[in-house]
Amino acid sequence: MMEHPETDIFRLFHHAAWSPEGAPADSDEILFEDFKTGETDSNTSYVWGTHALVIPAARRSRVARVFADYRLPTDIALEAANSHGDLKIRVARHNLFYQHERTKQRPDCKIAVCISSYKRLTDLQRQIWCMMDQSYPNLHVFAAVKGIPEGTYRRTVLPLFEHFIHEGRLTMRLFPNKNQLSNFLDTVRDLDVSGYDLFAKVDDDDLYGRDYFKSVNNFHLHLPPEFSSFYCGPGEYLGARGGYPFSGNGFFGCFGPTLVFSRDVLEKLMICEQEPHRISKMSPRLRHAGYGFTEDNFMHMIMLDTGSCNRTRYIQEMSLPMHLVIQTGNASVMRGGLVPGDFQGRNWNISINRDNEEHLMEVHHPQWHDVIRILGNRARRFERDDGADVVSATDKAITLKWDCWGVETFKKREDGVFLLSGSGKREEPSPPSGKKVAVLFVATGRYITFWEEFYAASRQYFLTGHDVHYFLFTDHTEVETGEDVTLVSKPFYPWPMETLRRFETFLKVQEELQQYDYIYFMNGTLLPVAPIGREIFPTSRQGLTVTMHPGYYKCHRSAYPYEKNGMSRARVLPSEGEYYFAGGFNGGRAEDYLCMCRELAGAVRRDLEDGVIAVWHDESHLNKYMIGRHPLVLSPEYLFPETLDFNQKNLMAIKPKAKMIVKDKSLQKRGGHTWLRQQI
Question: CA-to-CA distance for 234 and 250, rounded, in angstroms?
Fold first, then answer.
């Protein structure tokens, strides 16, 4: 220092050294040289350092003035002053200062892994297994599942992960879908997470290396507790070439899947969710960044304000293999069409308005089984696209006013599935007892053998408590009947005219039928076996009652045997039809049913004039007539086959509930089809 009085600072090292290897011998002269600003590279651990500096007493006031003038971090201020000539700094040619390798400045971090998954259950399953296999043990996974009805969630998702939940490694809950900020916060909402240091945002569909959280922890050990981190740099992308997986290098401009928040950031995000006006004050442009882009930008802004570091250089220096791979082949939830447009419109900005949430409920209705989606005050079925207004909604029950019929209330069971309240009865005034009901039964030729057993069973089970009258259409004159039976003379028609001209037959007594409240046709092979009550009465909006065909129950629409011949009035277009109805049991309010009979009788007559017979005769015309209408649809328990030789898989579940069976005409004891049709 005496030889160089002009030097303000003597620095005792070039770069970090962990041992005195290569140090000068005792006999060597200790030499210093001018420090040249910027002569460092990526391998230099410390570009500048404020430790191991010697400041001569005579120069201390000068150094102090530099710090007062340069309002910069100490390291940068010294380097800037040296480059501007405000300070003269010399550095030792050999490292004269050695330090122990840094020890951990804080204990291992406890990490909350936060996964919010919408619709993609297969991705969620893979990601949870991936997180359970992480090499870093001090973590817990918090999963918020969205876009799935509760019944399906309980049956198909929870059983896969119950062992992880019981082990205390996973917390999984079902939520309605919300804006992206709220979806993330749902992962830890209302939970005690005070014991966690970091909160990692993990995408359900990207591929995280097994040491991902080990590297996150090691990086944060050298950061202040209030710091967050992210990865924004070179990385791998997984795409596809010709349908085969293919990975390539790229740059992670989108760092959303790698955000790791400190507790301070998480708390600020929660405040901003409850007070969205704070977001626009921080950055007005975020209000208009577009659905799916806003939240990551906003989260990053909070991180930067609190303190944040990019992990990119650390990952490169550590040469960590397969740190993270972004999948490009998967449809983006936010921008790839998985989120419906009406939902995006409501969630363009961050909001806690419950009307903007998307709820799903699985419903078992006496006539159908479907999923209902609720957004705001509107609900819609998926399978049939029926709409309804939401009258009221709670966690236990929901009341809907359907556009095409009345009001219904559904109550939730313990398994999360909603049932129509009142044991399957609609929440609207039911028709009073004592209604006049006409039953139409055709028994010409050898089919008369079915009448006696049907009549006895029907009087026992069918609409007891109502005034039921039977119209027996037959060519037999010597039939013993009671006062509740009217014989209608009808000639026998050869197959298939007997069934094809059915509606024409009924119209012969339409004046008498107009005196009744309800009319029901029951096929000659039907046999009631359990009480059938007013649940088969359609509302005024529905008008008609039809029954799903047991052979096509729960089958895909492509299997339905609709009429395809464009020459027939019964033709159903490929875009039409939801169910396939059987012709064996149908009916409804008298006025609506007679109107249907008149129209279908005319359609059959015009087909015959053109030389056309629909593939399934009256049944084909019935299915055509129901297109665009909303009748009361009964399940096959009202037409359950006597012998289960088709569609067994779908029918077995409702077998115990069968109310009417369809006798098997092919059995030898009944003579077979050809005998009954008098073809032999």
Answer: 6
**Among 71-80, 178-187, 544-553, where is mean pLDDT lowest?**
71-80
Question: SS3 sequence, 643-661?
Answer: CCCCCHHHHHHHHHHCCEE
472's tokens: 């027996």
* CA 99 distance to own-chain centroid: 56
Name the pairing type of β-strands 397-402 and 324-327.
unpaired
Q: Are 585 and 547 in contact (CB under 8 A)?
A: yes
Amino acid at site 447: Y
**Alpha-carbon span 662 to 676, nearest angstrom:** 15
Pairing of strands 324-327, 234-241: parallel
Say if residue 356 is exposed, middle or buried (CB neighbours under 10 Å; 0-12, 13-18, 19+): buried
Handedness of CA 479, 481, 487, 492 (dihedral sign): negative
CA atoms of 584 and 618, how far apart (whole Å):
10
Predicted confidence at residue 101, as pLDDT, reads 58
For residues 438 and 587, give the distance between their C-alpha atoms in angstroms, rounded to a whole number: 9
Question: Would you place residue 128 in the very low, low, confident or very high pLDDT band (cuts 50, 70, 90)?
Answer: very high
| 611 DSSP 8-state letter | T
Contact 342, 375 (CB under 8 A): yes
Six-digit token string for 154: 């309980």
Taking the alpha carbons at both ends of the chain, their separation in whole angstroms is 128
CA 290, 332, 377 angle in degrees (round to 5)?
A: 60
pLDDT above 90 for 433: no
Residues 6+ apart with CB under 8 A from 132: 141, 164, 169, 170
Q: How far apart are CA 255 and CA 244, in angstroms?
A: 26
**Both structure tokens of 510:** 């339409």
pLDDT digits (tens, 9 = 90+) for 328-339: 766 666 555 577
Among 165, 161, 166, 108, which Cα is nearest to 137's? Answer: 108
Which residues, in sequence order, are bridge partners of residue 437?
Answer: 468, 518
Express each pLDDT in 215-265 by its tens digit: 999 999 888 888 999 988 887 878 778 878 888 787 766 578 889 999 999
**Cα dihedral sign for 19, 24, 29, 31?**
negative
pLDDT in tens, 264-318: 999 999 998 888 877 777 665 554 344 455 677 788 888 888 888 888 888 887 7
Task: Enter the tokens of residue 422.
Answer: 């009142």
pLDDT tens-digit map of 626-652: 998 889 889 899 999 988 777 777 788
Q: What is the DSSP letter of 406?
A: -
How far apart are alpha carbons 413 and 536 in whole angstroms? Answer: 24
Distance between CA 148 and CA 119 in Å, rounded? 6
CA distance readout (Å), 49 to 70, 144, 298? 16, 46, 34
- Contact in structure between 197 and 211 (CB atoms under 8 Å): no
Residue 534 DSSP class: G
Question: Pairing mode, if any, of strands 9-11 and 308-310?
Answer: unpaired
Helix (H, G, I), strand (E, B) or coil at 151: helix
Which whole-number Å values give the CA distances from 7 to 58, 92, 96, 431, 599, in the listed order? 10, 13, 18, 105, 109
